[in-house]
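In this supplementary section we document a worked example of the pipeline. Step one takes a protein sequence of length 468 as its only input; no multiple sequence alignment statistics are reported here. Step two produces a three-dimensional model, which step three serialises into C-alpha cells for compact storage. The input and output of this example are shown verbatim.
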Amino acid sequence: MTYRGRHRRRKKGRVLRGALSAAALGLTAAATIITTSQAAGSDNPGPLKPLTSAAETNKLQLRENLVAGSTLDTLQSGMGGAVGVHDVLKSANHPMRGKAQCAATESAALPVEPAASRAYCWDSGDATTQKWLPQSVTTSGDADNDGRWGPDRVILAGWTHNDHKADEPAADKGLARVAFIDANDPKNLKYRWVLLVAPLSGGKDFGAVRSHIGGMVWYQDKLIVTAKNGADHHNALFVFDMNRILRADVNSDAVGRVDGGWSARGYQYVLPAMGSYSLTGGACDARTNDGRPCFASVSLDRTSTPDSLVANEWFSSGGTEPARVWRYHYSTASDRTGLLDTGPGGLVDADEAYETEAVGLQGVLSHRPDGAEKAHWYTGYAPGSRDRHGTLWRQDESAAKAAQCGSGGTSYACWGQHTESLSYWQETGELWTLTEWAANEDNQWKPPAIPERVLYAVPLSAVDDAVQ
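The serialised model returned by step three reads:
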C-alpha cells in the first residue's frame, strides 16, 4: 500500500537544536501529587528537568543511513515481488485468546487501576512463545490517523528471542520477529509471524536481524525499531519499508538464499531493513546518562507539530540513575514518508529532551491534550522481578502523578506486571502495551508454566482520570 497520510505544517520554533557529529550503524483509582524529587523503585520521580545545553543534546544526535534502492529492488525481484500487509493478515494462523479465555496467571498481569478495557493472550498452541520475549507494540493507529492500513485495523507486536538460555541453538540467538495481528474483529484477533532481516550482497541474499526490539513505531509506510545487538552498543534504530514484505518459498532452518529459493528459518514472510539511524558520537553507554543513550523504547506523538518519534533510555529499576526522554520530528517531505527530519549530511537533531528521576523505564509516550501548551509524558516503570505490578507515571515540568491503589490507596504499583513499550491509538483513544515475564529473583530466565504475557489497552482518558 502506498501511504495516503496527511502532513502538518512545521512548528516555527523548536525547543532545542544541538550541533552534532557520527558513526555509521551496520545493519548486522485516585492519585495525588508527591513533592519528592528522587526516585528509587516506584518512589515519585517528581517533575521533568529540561535538557537544553548543546553538550547534552549533541549526545542524542543521529545520522541516517539508507540502503540503496537498487539493493532492495534486487532482493524484492529475486523473491518474486512484494506482498502487502493485507496478504499477511489473510494468512494469519495463530488465534489470540480474549480476556475471558486468559489463564488466571495471565489475567493477574493486567493493571489494577485503571482497568484494561481490552486484553488478549497469545495462542496457547504456539510453542515458540515460550522461547521469545514480547517487547514492543505499535498499530495502524500510528501508521495513519484514520486508524487503518488500507481496509485493515492492525496491531504489530515485536518479539526478541530469549538469549538467556544457554541451551538454545546459536542460530536462534537474538532473532527478531513481529506478530502481524489482524484486529478487524475485536472478538477474534489472530496473528502471523514475520521475521526481520537485512539485505546482503547487493540484494542477492539476506541475513537475520539479531536485535533487541524494545520499542517500535509504524508511521506512514515505515517501521522504526530500536536496535541493539549484544555488546554492540553502536546500534540505535533500524528502519523497514512496509511496502516491501517478502515471501520465503523454502521451509528450512536456514536464513537467506538456499538451493531452490529463499528460507527464513521456517517463517513464511520476511521484512528486510531499508536503513538505520546511528548515534553520531559512537557507542552508547548503558551505565550512565552522562554519555550517549542506549535506546530502550520508542513511540509516536501525533500531537506535536510535526509528528514526532519519542524515545527513552533504561537503567536498572534497582538503581538511582536518572533517565532521559526525548523526541525527533518526522520529515514532512512527500518523498520521505515515515523517515525522520534530517539536516545537512543526513543528521537528525533531538527537538526536545528531558531528564526524569524515574528509573526502570520500559516505555514512554508523549501526548499533548487539546488546549494544553505542553505535552504530558507517560513513563512506564517496571520492577526487576516477576509478579510485581509497575507504575505508569504522568510527568511534566511541574510534577509527576500516578494512580494509587491497594488498601487505602497506599500504593503506586497499579500498572501491569513488567509492561514494555507504549502506543497510543489516536482514533480510538486507547493506550496499548504488552507484558513480558521478567527475571526471577536469582536473575535466571525461567518462565512459569503459563507466562504472564498479555496484550492490553486502556483508554488514555482513564489514565488521566486516575491521576487527577
